[in-house]
Amino acid sequence: MTVHRPPDSRLLSNLIIHEKEYTKHLSALFPISHAALASLSAFAAASPSAIPSSSVSLAQTIATIVDIFSGADDALQLYNQAVENWRNQLGHLMKLEEDISAILRDREILVTRLLKVSKSSKTTRDSRSSLILPSGSTSFTSLPSTNSTPHGSSNTKLLQAQEELRACEAHLATKELELEELRVSIAREGLGARCRALVDCGWAWGETGKQGLLALQSLNADGQVPEPPLATFPLHSHLPSTSITPKKKPLPSSALPSHVTQGPISYSSDISSLTPSQSASQ
């Protein structure tokens, strides 16, 4: 006999509530960020149009940085969307658990009905057996006539109740199997998509950070980005990379590398090549 365990949706409800709060606060960041970038653009417009010993004006450089920060926001929005999709999938799981709870309630009703019909059928059989004559007794013509219709009706109700309960059991077993499969699917696909979006966001932030450093190099007469003091970096971090050289164009950011969008790979080489400011952003 299959033992049916009614699903407890309290933990799932709690997860959905907090995921909703998380995405709500993430989404609230973007209007604030846009306002901050607009303020930075206004500041750039009032900056000097020409700087001695520099081929690019401060206004142009800050405008480039504004575009870079905007790209970082776009990457974060993609991650936020992945969290929203995960929360929607949790909603489908909640709906299925509610369906199973309803089926279990129907099953209890059918079991109770079957018990009542079984008792009624047994009572009918006992009453008929008491009318059986012993050997040598009066003929059946002297006994009151009995009608077999109530007995047949009770048998029909019993068979119907049994059939309904069997159908409910089969439907319940199918739904419970579907629930287990959906749990695995959501964990594999929903959380997997969220992790991939996190990898893409981190990669995009690293690339946009590099573009920003390259843009800022044009503000120095010698073409080198000044390194911050060593004390500003944590003890466990690497020293800032000094291998970045000025380039005429910023690094392309339109296409992701093939190892990010295709299949499982190791990201150790990418992570080890990041500067401390890029690691902190992730």
Describe the structure.
By secondary structure, this protein is mostly helical. It is 68% helix and 0% strand. The chain has six helices and no strands. α1 packs antiparallel against α2 (58-129). The longest helix is centred in the N-terminal third of the chain and has 72 residues, at 58-129. It is rod-shaped and about 105 Å long.
How would the blueprint of this fold be written?
Layout lengths: L9 H36 L12 H72 L19 H69 L40 H4 L6 H5 L3 H6 L1
Features:
single chain; 282 residues; mainly alpha; 6 helices; rod-shaped; disordered C terminus
Distance between the termini: 52 Å
Summarize the amount of helix as a percent range: 55-70%
* Cα gyration radius (Å): 37 Å
Taking the sheet with the most strands, its summary is: none
Shape: rod-shaped
Mean pLDDT: 74
Question: What is the multimeric organization of the chains shown?
Answer: single chain
Order of helices and strands: HHHHHH
Runs in which pLDDT lies below 50 for 5 or more consecutive residues are: 136-148, 222-226, 228-282
Continuous helix count: 6
Helices and strands: which structural class? mainly alpha
Taken as a percent bin, the fraction of beta residues is under 5%
Number of strands: 0
